[in-house]
Each structure stands twice: as structure tokens, then as C-alpha cells.
Amino acid sequence: MSETAIKNTASGPLASETPRDVALFVTCLVDFFRPNVGFAAIKLLERAGCRVSVPAAQTCCGQPGYNSGDAASAAAIARRVIEVFEKYDYVVVPSGSCAGMISHHYPKLLGEDKRYAERARKLAAKTFELTQFLVDICGLTTLDVSLDRKVTFHDSCSSLREMRVKAQPRTLLGQVADLNFRELPDGESCCGFGGTFCVKYPEISDRMVTEKLANIEKSGADLLLAGDLGCLLNMAGKLKREGSKVESRHIAEVLAGLLEEPAIGEAASREER
Amino acid sequence: MESTADRFVDNAHRALADETLQQAMGHVRVNFIEKRRLAVEALPEFEALRQAGRNMRDRVLADLDKHLLAFEAKVLEQGGQVHWCVDAEAARNKILEICREAGARRVTKGKTMIGEEIGINEFLAAHDIEPVETDLGEYIIQLRHEAPSHLVAPAVHVTQKQVEETFRQVHRDLDAKRDLSEPRSLLSEARTKLRQKFVTADVGITGANFLVAETGSSVIVTNEGNGDLTQTLPRVHIALASIDKVVPTLDDLTVLLRLLARSATGQEMSVYTTLSTGPRREEDHDGPGAYHVILLDNGRSKMLGTPKQDLLRCIRCAACLNHCPVYQAVGGHAYGWVYAGPIGAALTPALIGLDHAADLPNASTLCGRCEAVCPMQIPLPDILRYWREEEFKNGAAKPGRASQSIRRGLRLWAFLARHPRLYRFATGIGRRILAGRAGRAGRLDKVPLAEGWTVNRDLPAPSKRGFHALYRKEYRG
């Protein structure tokens, strides 16, 4: 790994003398598929001057049940998440959709719950998507990392429309030396993942991800980044099935310079493992 | 209209395999999305207008009875008639009664989704009254015996080549040598045929984009002018409107008109915006001798006071359809009933019952683009989620074969999610099995019980060890 140094260049109201007390919500997909994203997030947060905790009692944010009509189970999970995370100053999530679940949907889900409604609102207000937190709260604008690749970025729907994150990942990627950034045509379209949607309606999902691949191709990029592992598993899985040379990674891996792991869905090289 | 919404998966399958349809649907993205974007960008107050429109619609829905009664009083005052119809059957019968009183044999029609909802064309035809669609798109699909597949562009699923084929088939007197390769020549061919119909029709039936309580007017917006000929030339004009169409004043109307055209087609205004107020007065040069408004409920009043009420703000601009990746992929007919796209997926279960349309709210990634572009800020993803909750509670219909196992799986997942140790143990087993199967390949091309995923894409392999285990090791030694 190349030595990376990330400076906190924040000044004015964003600057903070005492370290921010941040809890990392790892997400189940990062835990299961790609721990490297969690370590990259920790590294970025620490370099941005945060004290990072990873509560051991965390599991899932409750999205699968919530989006499948099982509101009662989702609410039970939400109450657990609140209990585990509410004592921290901030909750940071390397996923727009899990961050959106907590900050956008928990207050609605628990709106009628006398004991939890207010606590849900408070947690919602201090929960951020990773790049959003790094830029908007920590004021992190310079990164001492480099990557000589043609890169495109997929905005996940929840990141874009629930968390209103669009500029932040681009700001940070703009700080990666040698990186050649290409916007994705039709970039506000869904990739077709949609949680259980992609297994319930595989044909429609396939049409959507096929469109996405065509746009990735048009961008001319050889590395696809996103801030949500769900979308990435979908797009990387399709790219590999189609034999594409385009690689896929979570944006945090690039920003933190943690690129030793093979890209998502890529074979391990011979020397390793 | 007969529904095939309960066969959504089959409908979608056919649509995805239909190359002509796919070619036609390509135009939706090109034509509508960019035009809307430019129109919205060009109007700095668009967001403020959107907020004002939404608030006004909410106010109206809170006192809907009052506004409808005010509208009725104004129509009566001007010599028109209002017919309150509780359902499709009541509306059909009333329309037939009016047509028979007028001795009607031919009815021209402007575009009306309510007409589709109550299946008026088939009904009139079955009673020896000839309905003639006069909107070009509606005319085309009437000749093809199809239903509209889009709120604004009913024939968006038809290619230009298909239109030419249909015209050559149906217009028997058409010279085989005549060039119909240009849209303009198709338009002029349709116009020639329709002119004869306009002047010989006994009754004109139009929809109503809005009803204005202050003036007792029905309002239509069109780009072809066919609606004006339909409502002014025949002896009788019948405007079909659902009860949610009423706005209090002309000022309120302008707010919605400014939002509608921009959201629908990217125009600042439609080419024609026409207000019909009562029958012809003595001093009028033209106009119908009788003016009727059909006010259709058909399940809408039951939506008031429920999470579905927000759907009644809809102004039928179709922006949600145009921006929906599922609609773009499968087209409007796959939804199986009158209303397609996100608004259709949310509204259809309310109007025909969730049991008959259970797939519609599920067939969405909840990507939220519909809500983002909706000029009425309708929380469409929330309403789709509401239907999923209803379905889960009722154990109602079965989207996909695996619905029961999905339910059990969700319950198990929710249990594990609240028991972190068990959760790590259980996910650890799954992770190790999959990682073992993947070996060094980094991905799997077949995963038992996850064919829905692997039929079209590989599954990137999970990590051999989970984040939490690695983290404890690294940070706690």
C-alpha cells in the first residue's frame, strides 16, 4: 500500500478542535462481501480527524423488511439500531441506501412510536453518507492519493435522492491525483438492483443493468465507482458475466488508497492468498 | 376496461421480448426527459410553483365536497348539467342515456383517460353508437384495437412504420402509391379522415384536465386542436371527469397549467388550452346545444383520509412514467389496466383492488425518480411501500412463486438482525460456503436459491472473513 496522508484542511465553522466522535455503521453487505470498504471508511474518517467507533452489536438497518412490506420487523430492527447508535455524535455509513434508511425512513417508520419517535428523529439528523460527512461536516477537501485510471461514478438512487449527495463524491475524486474522471451518461437512472427487486423481477432488472452497462461503456471508463455496495454487486456481477474489462470498486477504497484487494468480483492474482 | 394487471410478470416478459415495442420505447427517454429538464431549468420559480400547486391541491382535497358542489352550482346556473356517477357502470349508463336522448349515431371523442377507465368505446359500440377517437394517437390505437400505453402520448408504443401499415390496412381508399413515410403525411391522412367525422358527429365526448369551480368550466389542454372541434361542433358536449379534477379558481388553474405542460412535454403551454363553460348562449357563434359533466368517483372518495389521498393530487402529466426505468423497459401495456408507470402502480390497486394488481407495487426499485419529478410532489415510493405493507399484512396475493419463502426469510432475517451473535454465526456460515465455492475466481456464476440473481449476472464472492471479525482482530489484537 502506498503511504497516504490525508489532511484535514477544514477551517472556519467546519473546523473542530476536539475529535468528532463517530460511529461507523458498517452495513451488512460490507460485512459480508467487502470488509475492505469498512477499513477504508475508518481510515478516511480518522484522517479527517474523527474518533471512530464500530459498535459490536450492529447488524442490519432493516431495509429488506421495510421495502418488502414487513414494517413491524423493520421497526423492531430500527429500535435496536437507535439503541446501539444514539450515544455517538455522528453515525457515518458507507452506503447511501442504509444512510437513507436511517435518516430518511426511520422517522416515518417510528413516527407513532411514543418511546422512539423523537430518538429516531435525533438519530436521523446526525446520520450521514460517508462522502457527505467527509466533505460537508469534516471539510475534507484534499487527499494525498493518486490513481492513474479512467474512472466513472454511479450515483445510487438513495444517495442521490434521499441523501441529496451528488457533489461530494466528485469533490473528493477531484482530489485524487492522476485520476481521469468521466461522467456516466444518463447518470440519474437506477442500475436495477433495488434489493429484492432484482431477484423478484430478474428480467426487468437485467434490462436496467444492461442499459447501465451501455452507459458505462460510453463513458470510456475502465474503473466504475459507487458509494453503495448493492449497486456495485449488481453492476460488477453483470460486467463480469458479460466479460467486460471494466473493474468495480467502492469509492472509499480509492479515496483511502486501499486498493490491494482485487476489484469486486475479480479473481485473486496468483501471488496473493 | 378489462384488467390484466394480475399477469404483470407475463406481460412484462412479452414486452421485453418485443423488439418493435423496445424500439418505440426508446423514444420516451429521448423525447420527454430532456425536454422537461430544459423547461424546468428555464423557469427559476418552478420549485415554488410546484410547492404552491401541491398546497392548493391538498387544500382542495380537504374540502372536496364543497368545491364540487360549488362547481355544480355554477354549471347549473349556466344551463349545463352535472351527473354524479358512483362507478363505471353508472357513468356508462348516463352517457348512453344522454346519447340516446340526442338520437346520436356517431360520437367524436377527445382524449379521456376516464373514458378508458369506464370502457366507454366498447359500451357505445355495443349499443350501435360509433365512437371515433380524434386525438391522433388515440385514433391510431383505436384502429389497432389497442389501449393507450401512456397518459400523454397514448400511442407511444407504436412505431411510425406500424402507423403506416395500420392506415394502409384500414383506410381502404388510400392510394397505394401515396408516400406515408413522413409523420406529416400520416397526420394529413388522419386529418382527412377525421374532418368527415367531426362534422357528422351528434355528440362530442372529451375528458377534462381540470374543472374550475369559480366559473363552472371544464378545461382541456391539447396540441392538435381536435379537442376543440370535438366539444364545439356536435350538438351535445359531454365532459368526463373524475372528482379529483376540481380547482377553486382560474388563478389556481394557471398554477397547474404552468406545471402541467412543462412536466409533460417540456412546453411552456400546450398549443390549445380551452375552457368550456355551459352550452351555447344566444350570442355565441357556435358551441353545443347541451353541456354535460360526468363526475366519476369510482373508488376515489374512499382514498380520502388514507395514505392514498396524495395520489388524488395527480395532474396526469406522465413525468413519472417517462422517468421510470421499469416503465421504460416494459411499456404501458404490461401494467395491465388504464394507468401505467409509477402512478399506475400506486393508483391501480386502489381502484381495482390489490388482489388484482399485487405485482404492480412490487415491480419497482423504489429509485425515487418519479417522486423527484412529480409536479405535485406525490410520494410515490412511499405509496408503493404502503401497498407492500398491506399485502404483507393480508398475506394477499403472491408476487412471484416464492412469496411464502420470502416472507419466512424476512422474518428470520429480522430475528437475526436483533441478535448480533446469532447473526454473525448464521451469516458466517453462508459467507464461508459461498467463498469456498468461489475459490480464487472471485465470483460465482450459480448460487442455489439465488437463480434470480445468477440467471443474468455473476455474484461477486463474499469475503472469507467478515468485517467485524477482521476488525476485532486488527483493532483489539
TrEMBL record, chain A:
PANTHER family: LACTATE UTILIZATION PROTEIN A, UNCHARACTERIZED PROTEIN YKGE
Name of the protein this chain belongs to: (Fe-S)-binding protein
Domain Cysteine-rich intervals: 22-102, 151-235
InterPro entries associated with the record: Cys_rich_dom (IPR004017)
N-terminal signal peptide: none
Organism domain of life: Bacteria
Pfam families membership: CCG
UniProtKB/TrEMBL annotation, chain B:
Protein keywords: 4Fe-4S, Electron transport, Iron, Iron-sulfur, Metal-binding, Repeat, Transport
Coiled coil: none
Source species, domain of life: Bacteria
Domain 4Fe-4S ferredoxin-type: start-end pairs: 305-335
The keyword 4Fe-4S is annotated on this UniProt entry: yes
PANTHER family listed in its UniProt record: LACTATE UTILIZATION PROTEIN B
Designated name of the protein: Lactate utilization protein B
Organism whose genome encodes this protein: Dongia soli
